[in-house]
Amino acid sequence: GESVGLHLPTLSVQEGDNSIINCAYSNSASDYFIWYKQESGKGPQFIIDIRSNMDKRQGQRVTVLLNKTVKHLSLQIAATQPGDSAVYFCAENIPPGGGSYIPTFGRGTSLIVHP
Amino acid sequence: DAGVIQSPRHEVTEMGQEVTLRCKPISGHNSLFWYRQTMMRGLELLIYFNNNVPIDDSGMPEDRFSAKMPNASFSTLKIQPSEPRDSAVYFCASSLASGKHEQFFGPGTRLTVL
Predict the structure, then answer these.
(1) CB A19 within 8 A of CB A77
(2) What tens digit of pLDDT does each residue of B65-76 get?
(3) Extended beta strands in A31-71, E state
């Protein structure tokens, strides 16, 4: 899962396994959450989002689960592939007074997929 | 669409020099964000603009940092004078301020200050 420490948490899996990446968020007022994927040398890329009125949302091979009671978010990747190797960030968003949501990013989890 | 465009992709400079990073957001997006990423601090929001107006610059580390957005298709982040601790990857991102709030990130500028 994510950490505020200096070292990125790392999850190593075998190709074809399912991966679960966890994230603890801090602000109970956050009502919108996004998972981003960052490959080496690139900027973060949107994967999936979820609003606080939902507890589960599915995309293509990915599922996000939200537990507001314990302020926990998880990203599940089915049948993990080598191309999924990247750093994954969760971002919590507090409702804006006007304009854009401003995300607060976690420190990230490094996913390594072994062929 | 080409996505968010940043230049230069890499910048190496000496301490004390002025550095200017450039960003072209996605056409039609009305929010623009500047981030800094380091291993020590992760991804930090420096400043963001809505409709070319700076809304929150509380993340700008010091007066040495300044950002401008003269029009909807261009923004700059300037560091003057630069210091070795400014070495990082700087990302620009843009989004629509309504509907889906997904941010689209550029490829980043890797800055090294010697």
Answers:
(1) yes
(2) 999 999 999 999
(3) 32-38, 45-51, 56-58, 62-67
